[in-house]
What does this fold into?
Amino acid sequence: MKDTFDLLVNTDFPPIKRAALETMQVNLGYLCNQQCLHCHVDASPRRTEIMSAQTITDVINFLEHKNIKTLDLTGGAPEMNPGFFTLVKAARDMGVHVIDRCNLTVLLEKGLEKTASFLAENEVEVVASMPCYLEENVDAQRGKGVYEGSIEGLKLLNRHGYGLKDNLQLNLVYNPQGINLPPSQDLLERDYKKELQRRFGISFNHLYTITNMPIKRFGSTLVSKGLFEEYMQLLKTSYSKDNLPGVMCRTTLSVDWQGYVYDCDFNQMLDLPAGVSANKTHINQLLQSELKGQAISIMDHCYGCTAGQGSSCGGSLS
It folds into this structure.
């Protein structure tokens, strides 16, 4: 795999600082039952990195001390970590809102058949990968047969009340193919709702459009195809300063599978420590620290969050 770090490190992206911490995004490991082309984490069934029970305890302790509003769980497939259920239950008992970034097909995996009912019982918000409502586009990006499994996963969530009850939020995520920015989030959401309802009777709440980042697997593909510079030019020429105040790194702290902290999930994948520090910091070292006002580590990939409509884990910014 071709590393894009050296192509991103010299940047003219404007400096930004942290606001009050609201969300803790935790990567429970890189193990996944899928291997998607756009995956900035480079997750796959072959990965062995997974958060330990002790580090999960550290995360719970941090939640208690810092009065975090939202716990955002990601991976890989976060549900494949055995400690996922313990962490979710502990967070919900504290009144923390929990988001599960689910690839849908994991709900059908052997041994995880009760995951959907667990999520519903604990009123966990599900944010699910669904890069298109057409089979050929989904399978091209995520692997043959993934579309069919994703549809079954969505039907399963609907049967548990997701997308139908106010307390069971089901939101989908769109990632564009190739070197393109996402289209209008509102217009695409209408198309998704119409087509998924017409074809399968599926309901969901919102669609989030997320720009692909020029790092890890997607970045390597761009370099291999000679498209890296063209894609970066697209991101830079599409920059909108109006998106800068809303970038997710201002209110979110990203935690890797070992418990080290980063300004965002993308910086985590680039091994770029939080707060322009040269050394990694563990969450246990931040229990007494105030993060508000701290400088955020930036490189050229940050243009991906501010291009066009803007992009965050909660969709477009504008």
